[in-house]
Design a protein that fits this description.
By secondary structure, the chain is of the alpha/beta class. It has 14 helices and twelve strands. The two termini are 16 Å apart. It comes from Acidipila rosea.
């Protein structure tokens, strides 16, 4: 595709606080621009949404007005100035009708929100409101109209096709690359960072990185760690839980079980996470579901063995460089970890081999090839 092509990336509303989507859109913009493409990132302006405090119930409705009353006019007008429009988040699929006159692409990161609303997950029983169901159906209807959908994993593609009940005209799976330059830190580099986090230079610890979404299975992390504490070789091993502050349920579990050796680390920096990966015995990542599973790659890039679920997309992303466990069975998970984690050196080697599948160049080349297919299809 010629670098003269003008690409419009459509991002998310700032007040929604979707940091992973923000990083993804900015990553695409940065890498496409570095290759000489003329690229712009357009996001809904915060106009009405800024008039009310985030705690005010009215702020949500004002934000919806910004996104779905005011922004579509701007988007329709600006889209005509570009050769291709890429909507970076599938939750914005309703925008597709405003860019239909321009060749377009949309990325689907996962359909867990939609499937949860439709009560597809026994681990997350819900009673969705009629309004939420309408919102989810609006997204599905938008995706059904898509000419080209990029999914970030084969599992996401599989679940999306089940929802759509048909394959879009053009469908591609393009894996993420790392969106930060994670690599193994030396002991000397990591030690002062870990010391500030309360970890001794030779501390033995397992690491979990993630938020409190139900599918992250953070209570399951604690349950697995409780079982591991019974294994002689894991005596003295600490669990570091990095990410969001614990939920009341997690605090209650730690208290009721008198679980020792657990450290809560809220909102660590990328550098701190890199140091944690570099010094950990392993990443413990027993998610029930994911769209992709970035921490798996981050850990492998830092030479950290990975323990993750025997489900996709975790298996798909981890490759051979992981210990696979049943995330719903803490006893069997602990038994498998105690057995398989003995061979840490091989897990690290396999992890480094696996990470090579997810290079930045491979990702961007795949996007450019897909863009070219879309542009050629529009000319046919």
């Amino acid at each position: 595709m010629t670098t003269q092509a003008k690409i419009l990336l459509v991002g998310n509303y700032a007040l929604d606080g979707q940091q992973s989507m923000k990083r993804y859109a900015e990553f695409l913009k940065r890498e496409l621009a570095a290759r000489g493409y003329r690229v712009e990132l357009l996001e809904p302006s915060v106009t009405l949404g800024g008039l009310a405090s985030p705690k005010n119930p009215l702020s949500k409705w004002l934000g919806l007005a910004d996104k779905f009353l005011l922004f579509p006019r701007t988007l329709r007008k600006r889209a005509r100035e570009f050769d291709l429009v890429h909507i970076c988040d599938h939750s914005n699929a309703p925008y597709l009708k405003y860019v239909s006159a321009t060749p377009n692409v949309i990325t689907c990161h996962d359909v867990m929100g939609i499937r949860s609303a439709l009560q597809h997950y026994p681990e997350n029983p819900t009673v969705p409101s009629a309004r939420l169901l309408r919102r989810m159906q609006w997204i599905v209807d938008g995706l059904k109209s898509a000419k080209c959908v990029i999914c970030i994993s084969r599992k996401t593609e599989e679940e999306l096709l089940t929802l759509l009940e048909r394959r879009p005209p053009l469908q591609r799976v393009i894996h993420h690359s790392l969106n930060w330059n994670y690599q193994k830190m030396s002991v000397e580099e990591a030690a002062p960072i870990l010391h500030k986090l309360g970890l001794a230079p030779k501390a033995r610890y397992l690491l979990h990185v993630g938020g409190n979404q139900w599918y992250k299975n953070r209570l399951g992390v604690l349950r697995i760690f409780k079982e591991l504490r019974k294994v002689p070789s894991f005596q003295g091993v600490t669990l570091v839980m990095a990410g969001k502050s614990w939920t009341p349920e997690m605090r209650a579990f730690v208290s009721q079980e008198a679980l020792q050796g657990v450290i809560e680390l809220v909102s660590p920096s990328n550098e701190q996470v890199q140091a944690l990966y570099s010094g950990a015995q392993a990443l413990l990542f027993p998610s029930f579901h994911e769209g992709f599973g970035w921490p798996i790659l981050e850990a492998q890039a830092c030479g950290c063995p990975v323990i993750t679920s025997n489900r996709d997309p975790m298996r798909e992303i981890a490759g051979a460089g992981a210990v696979l466990i049943d995330p719903a069975d803490p006893v069997s998970a602990a038994r498998e970890i105690a057995l398989r984690l003995r061979n840490q050196d091989q897990l690290v080697k396999d992890g480094f081999v696996n990470i090579s599948r997810f290079s930045k160049d491979a990702m961007i080349n795949s996007y450019l090839e897909t863009y070219e297919e879309v542009l050629q299809g529009a000319k046919a």
